[in-house]
Amino acid sequence: MSIFQIKGGFPLKGEIHPQGAKNESLQVLCAVLLTSEKLRIKNIPEIGDVKCLMQILKNLGVLVKKNGMGDYTFQAKNINTEYLNTKKFREYGKSIRGSIMIAGPLLSRFGKVCIPIPGGDRIGRRRLDAHLTGLKLLGSRIYYHNEYKYFDLQIHKKSLTGEYILMEEASITGTANIIMAATLAKGKTTIFNAACEPYIQQLCKLLNKMGAKIKGIGSNLINIIGVKELGGCEHTILPDMVEIGSWIGLAAITCSEIKIKNVSWKNLGIVPNTFQKMGIKLEKVQDDIYIPSQKSYQIKKSLNNAILTISDAPWPGLTPDLLSILTVVATQAKGSVLIHQKMFESRLFFVDKLIEMGAQIILCDPHRATVIGLNHQSPLRGSILNSPDIRAGISLLIAALSAKGTSIIKNIEQIDRGYENIDERLRILGANIIRIT
User: What is the pLDDT, as a whole number, of residue 119?
Assistant: First the structure.
């Protein structure tokens, strides 16, 4: 098992190009199963979760050709659905949560699919109700096999049939799964309370280029007219907004001067504004973000002079993936902030490691933490850390880069699942970080 050894407390400087969006990539890769024609997808991040899903696609029979870094051509011409009944698939499928999104395409195109209970980050309860309820309404029968912990879905008519679906929660992966299934369903499907993140919008745009008929893109009311078949096309993945937020947070807490190139500002939503509420200066330079070196950043108070509260919400609210990073950034801010993680009850438990490093944090309950900023007057201390999930892992890495002394981060495979060659890219900026295998 590999570790990172980090000597922190030094400012960084330089330019960085954000990787392709992890969440969009997982959705788009599943969409290749909807057609037998070729799909060329660019800007795919070379990260653990994407590599795992691509291996599942290869094992299913998808032809995968690498054209260059992050540039692949896929063709799902001869699919072996029997692979889904193997132990090998159940192991791969359980390792990432994105594997659940092959259900919609395979069910719609081939009439049956087996799906293990997916894995991913252990950050609390992550229900599958949105997926299963939506696919059931479209006309599938669902059986659960308790011995091997997997779901067996089968169409009980000739094809899926369009339906009105009111989603109980605006699940991103659930919305993606239902949209993909509905593209080949008979008739009209309406999805209300659909997730509308930029990555869902990107998926819909891709499907429309393939020949789907989707309207309402960017809203929470999606209408889909099913078609008989879909074709091939080209698609480019957006920059990853969570990684962009990670670089902003890193620049602030390490007093670094960093320019993030080609961020697609129009798809960042309130991410820049949220960091500005933390007192972080950032500038829009064409389509780049420039963060100057700051010795201090002061958290803004609410209009009634109350402590600032930062919480997650469905788009266009703040993505929950950034709350761990904002928590670390707040430890060296001037002022205090309440971090409210509404969606996942285990995501804030990593703060005990920050407290060991010298941060002043009160974990109010599983969903809320109050951070009292130290204003760089009392830097964090180097420590031995363990990466519990992707976002907590990168947050601890950021903390270690700002800390005085040497830190060791274990279980860095979790970080590699979501961040492409992170140690190499940090060294380009001047970071003292070594990967030890």
Answer: 54
Say which of 121, 240, 321, 389 is annotated catalytic.
Answer: 121
Find out whether 338 and 374 touch, Cβ atoms under 8 Å.
no
Tell me, yes or no, if 121 is annotated catalytic: yes
Q: What is the CATH number of the domain that holds 300?
A: 3.65.10.10
Task: Return mean pLDDT, the chain.
Answer: 93
Alpha-carbon distance of 43 to 223, in angstroms, equals 28
Amino acid, single-letter form, for residue 78? N
The helix (H) or strand (E) run that includes residue 181 is: helix 172-182
Written as one letter, the residue type at 145 is H
The span from the CA of 398 to the CA of 419, in Å, is: 13
Cβ of 360: how many Cβ atoms within 10 Å?
Answer: 15
- Cα dihedral 269→272→275→277 (10° resolution): -80
Q: What span, in angstroms and rounded, lies between the C-alpha atoms of 26 and 390? A: 15
Distance CA 338, CA 355 (A): 16
What does the alpha-carbon distance between residue 279 and residue 333 come to, in Å, rounded to a whole number?
8
Q: How far apart are CA 87 and CA 285, in angstroms?
A: 51
What's the domain range around 142?
22-236
What is the radius of gyration, based on Cα positions, of the chain?
22
* Residue 221: C-alpha distances to residues 75, 146, 190, 198, 427 (Å): 31, 35, 7, 15, 45
289-323, pLDDT tens digit by residue?
999 999 999 999 887 888 999 999 999 999 999 99
* Residues 128 and 30 occupy one common structural domain: yes
Q: How far is Cα of residue 20 from the mean position of the Cα atoms in its chain?
A: 11
- Entry pTM: 0.94
How many Å apart are CA 171 and CA 408, to the nearest integer? Answer: 35
232/258 same-domain check: no
Which tokens go with 377? 């007057």
